[in-house]
Every structure is written in structure tokens, then in C-alpha cells.
Amino acid sequence: MKRRALRKAKNAAFLTLSLIATMTGLACLAAILWTLLSHGLEGMSWDLFTQMTPPPGSRGGLLNAIYGSAVMTLLGILIGSPIGVLAGTYLAEYGRKSRLSAVIRFINDVLLSAPSIIIGLFVYEIVVVRMGHFSAIAGALALAILAIPVTLRTTEDMLNLVPVGMKDSSAALGAYPWRTTISVLYPAARSGIVTGLLLAIARISGETAPLLFTALNNQFWSRHLNAPMANLPVVIFQFALSPYKDWQDLAWAGALIITVTILVLSISARVILALLHTERGSGR
Amino acid sequence: MAIIDPRHAAKQLIYERVFRSATLAAAIFVLLILGGVALSLVRGAWPAVSHFGFSFVTREIWNPVTDEYGALAPIYGTIVTSVIAMLLAVPTGFGIALFLTELCPPLLKRPIGVAVELLAAVPSIIFGIWGLFVLAPLLQRQVQPWLIGHLGHMPFVGHLFKGPPYGIGILTAGVVLAIMVLPFIAATMRDVFDTVPPMLKESGYGLGATTWEVMWNVVVPHSRVGIVGGMMLGLGRALGETMAVTFVIGNAHRISSSLLAPGTTISSAIANEFTEAVGDLYTSSLIALGLLLFLITFTVIAAAQAMLRHLERGGGSAV
After folding, report:
1. What's the pTM value of the predicted model, to 2 decimals?
2. Do residue B123 and residue A119 have CB atoms under 8 angstroms apart?
3. B302 contacts A86? CB cut-off 8 A
4. Count of CB pairs separated by less than 8 Å, A with B
5. Would you call A266 and B118 a contact, using CB atoms and an 8 Å cutoff?
6. Dihedral, CA atoms, A70, A73, A74, A79, nearest 10 degrees?
7. Cα separation of B89 and A21, whole Å?
8. Nearest CA to B268 among B170, B178, B190?
9. Contact (CB<8Å) B20/A233
């Protein structure tokens, strides 16, 4: 009888601990969001979106940084996602069982969690050193390399979800695999692939380390892809570590903008996926 | 009875070859990235490696003035911060996974799961700025004085908690890292626990086992390969994490016996110094640090992936 009470007590103790662990995790998320909101909203104003990053000791905005981040993220996706989607297509359609595909899948998963600063060093070596200066295009390339593994993985997964019958019907009509892929598989997996793109954008738009020594930063308005370009993450990094109150306020406002963007992107990706699953679930 | 126009068929065949080659080229490009990363790092690191030889990884000195560099302090900082992060995040992540799979009311399961995954989506620079302005002062005022007062005089562990409470330093970096890798560990463990056949768990409950006993004696042994894989995936993240650490580590190139003292890690040294590095040997030494980080994280992540894959194929169920 005593033994049973002991077992029950042990059970209760561990279950309580697991509850506390979950509370801790949620509390961390809440604390971070709360700090961001309280500090970030304080610095929110129209100036953020209409003025350039200021010199120390004066007020200003983040316009050039927001623009730079948008340009480089967009370029990164435009360069990276076609490669990711095509490679995912190869893994799902052409080389499904081949040894090469197994190796590529493995390497891709490693790249997916590889430290992004290493990618920054790589692009520095092959682009910045060759060109002799930092540039927005180098930053975009670094982001593109980070976007590839994300899009590849989701594309492959989503193509694998398309019912085999659809592929077979297309083949039975005499279509070559490329035609089937473009006219049947891509439309069928469209929302899934879009989800992958959203996740990739969410992943690269907050990346700081790979931009530090590729795009660097630029205090002024610049539209030259061949020159250093301002971007939100690096501006946040520099301003937050500065001793100036104005700069720190801007850093918090920038941090809020980035986080809200990324959370909205991730949540929409999840919603699309959830809708997709209920559709599939009820459809069959 | 389709009528096949030979010219049309020939054209189709060409399109097919082009499309197939394009997908194959893209797939091979992924391999080239990894190869390119390895090659360019080795090439960039070569001047430092050939100049310092093996002593690069055994010396603590880091002096841009005399142009002498050793990687021991960053290596030490990287390992110690990651160990602290794992010590904190693994039990917590295990607890969250246990809660989500066994305790959580079904209605809350998705929202809590999503919240944990959103924590993973928050970019590392946000953890950095939060760590610097919120967590570091909190630790400095509340936690570190307590650690110094209560643990600082104990034998064996005392020297880990000596010195003034700086706020920023190795310990704070470890705590921030723990919060960052927590969602990865929790999500992987939850997924692994979900693969345990309900039949096994039901048999445990049928024998009168408590929830904890089922967890510890049935679920954990059944999914141990996946648990280790998830832990190593988290470790890979912690070792390579840059921005969050750079904010709170204090960036001091020395090895201090106290966890409260400032230190440096491989990635934060690169992030802090790379654009300011003058001289080929300085730049090359930083790239050599990058090469070290690449080798360490590649090994850890590859091992983690191999374990998780092994599990996917059902090999993990062999007890």
C-alpha cells in the first residue's frame, strides 16, 4: 500500500514538473513578445517609414533599412526558390529512389540546420573577395543559399502528397513527365509550394549573420545592388549595441517590425497547411 | 488511337530532356553548395593554418597587434555555452514533449504546439536584443548574486560561480541559447513520442503503470534513438548560433574559470571582428575559426540526421 502511494507521488511530481516546463516555454515566448511590444510600440511612428537611419544623437527612421531588407529578401527568394523547387521536383519525380537522391536529401537536411554565419563566410569568399567590395547582391546570394533547403524540402514533401492516380492519368494521356509535372503536379501542390516559399521568406528575412559581411550596411539611401545596402537585421544589431537612446529605440522598433512580419508569415503558412490537410482529409 | 505527329513527339522529347536536366542540375547544385562551402573555407583558412599549424587550436592568445591567434578561447566558449544550453533545454524540452503527448487536453494540444513552434520562428537577433536588455539585467540582479553567495564557496563547483555579477557572460549566453534551442528539442521529442505505437502504451497502462512509469519504461526506451537525434539537432543549433550569443557573451578572448565572466564563442568572434579585421592573417584566422565551426556542426548535425532517419525507417523500434 505504501509502495503504491510512493509511485503515485512520484508520478504526480514528474507530471507537475512537465507542466512547469511547458509553462516556462510559453512564458519565454510571452516575455519576448511582451518586451518587443512594449519597447517597440514606444518607438513606432510614421518617421520609421519615411526617414533614413540617423547619425548618432538624432532622430530618424528606418526607411532605407526596410527597403534594403525587402529588396534582398525578394532577390534571395527569386534566386533561391526556383533552384529549391526544381531540385525538390527531381527528388520527388525523377530520382525518387536513387542513391544520389538519398545523398542530396541528407545534405539538404544538414544545410537546413547549418549555421548561417558559415554561409556568410562562403559568400564573402566567393563574391565579396572577387568583387573587392561589399554589395547588396552578395547579401541576396547568401539569403538565396539559405532559402534553397527550405523550398526544396517542402516542394518534395508536397509533390509526394499528390495522389498517384493524377500522375498516372496524365501519363495515360500521353504526356511526358515534364508536362505532367508542370500542368498537373505543380497546380495540385500549389498551396503547399507557396507555404514553402512563405516559410523560406520568414527564415531569411530575419537572418543577420550572413549579411554582416556580405551586404554590410549603409547609412544612406541606396538602390545600387552593387554597393553596400542597409538592412533591418544589421541596423538592429548596430543600433542596439550603441550607447545612444535614439538608436536603441529604433532598434526596438525594427525588432518589432521584423518579428511581426515573420510571425504573420509563419502563421499564414501554418493556416494554409491546415486548410490543405482538412481538404485532403475530407476529399478522400 | 492517337495520331502522333513525329515532329511534335521529337519536340516533346527535347522539352523532357531539358526539364529533366534542369531539375537534376538544381539537385546537384545542393551538393555543390556544401562542397563549395568546405573548399572556400579551407582555402580562406589556409594562411592561418599553415602559419600556426596545430597550435592554432591549442593556444589561448588572440592578439591582433602582434598578429598571433589561437582558437582555444572561442572553442571553450562555444562548448561551454552549448553544454549549459543543453543542460537547461533537454529536461525542459522533454517535459514539454511529455506534457503535449500525455497530459495536454486535446483542445489545447494544437495551440501550445504552435506556440512552441512560433518560438522557433523568432529570429536569433530578437533573442539577442531581448537577452541584452531584459535577461542579462535580470540575471545580474536576481540570479547571479544568489549563485555567488550560495554556490561560490562550495568545493569543486565554487570556482564556476566566482567573481562579480557582470550580467553578460558565458552563463547568460548559455541561458539565451537554451531558450532558442528549446522549441527544436521539444518539437522533435514530441514527434518522436508520437511514433510510439499506442498499443505499447496501453499495455503499460493495462498493467497498472502510472503515466510517468509508462513514459520512462515504455516510451523513452522505445524512442531513445530519436531522443538522442533531437538533442543533437538542438546541439548543432546551439553550437552555430551567432547573433543571440554575440549580444550577451561580452566578447572577451580569454578562458575564465567562472561561468559569470565574459567570454567568446567561435561564431560571435567571427560576427564581431570579421569586418574590422585588418591584415590577411587576422582574416584568415577568423575563417579558420569558421572552418572549425563548420567541421564541428557538420559532424553533430549529420549524426543527428542519421539517427532521426534510422528512426523514420522503423529501425528505432528495436529495443
Report:
1. 0.90
2. no
3. no
4. 266
5. yes
6. 160
7. 10
8. B170
9. no
DSSP state of B168: S
Q: Residues 200..219 of A with a Cβ closer than 8 Å to B: which? A: 202, 205-209, 212-213, 216
C-alpha cell read off for A237: 544589431
Q: What is the pLDDT along chain A (284 residues), one digit of tens a residue?
A: 688 899 999 999 999 999 999 999 999 999 999 999 999 888 788 888 888 888 887 788 899 999 999 999 999 999 999 999 999 999 999 988 899 999 999 999 999 988 999 999 999 999 999 888 899 999 999 999 999 999 999 999 999 989 999 999 999 998 899 999 999 999 999 988 999 999 999 999 989 999 998 888 888 888 888 889 999 999 999 999 888 888 999 999 999 999 999 999 999 988 888 887 776 654 43
- The C-alpha cell at A98 is 536513387
CA distances from B7 to A7, B11, B19, B306 (A): 79, 6, 18, 48
CA distance B162 to chain A (A): 27
**What would the DSSP string read from start to end of B46-76?**
HHHHHHHGGGGGT---EETTTTEE--HHHHH
Q: What are phi and psi of B63, to 5 degrees?
A: -130, 100
ipTM metric: 0.89
Nearest chain B Cα distance for residue A284, angstroms? 23
What 3-state DSSP class applies to B3? Answer: coil
First vs last C-alpha separation in chain A: 52
Amino acid at B85: A
Whole-number Å distance between alpha carbons of A38 and B249: 25
Using an 8 Å CB-CB cutoff, list chain B residues near A238: none
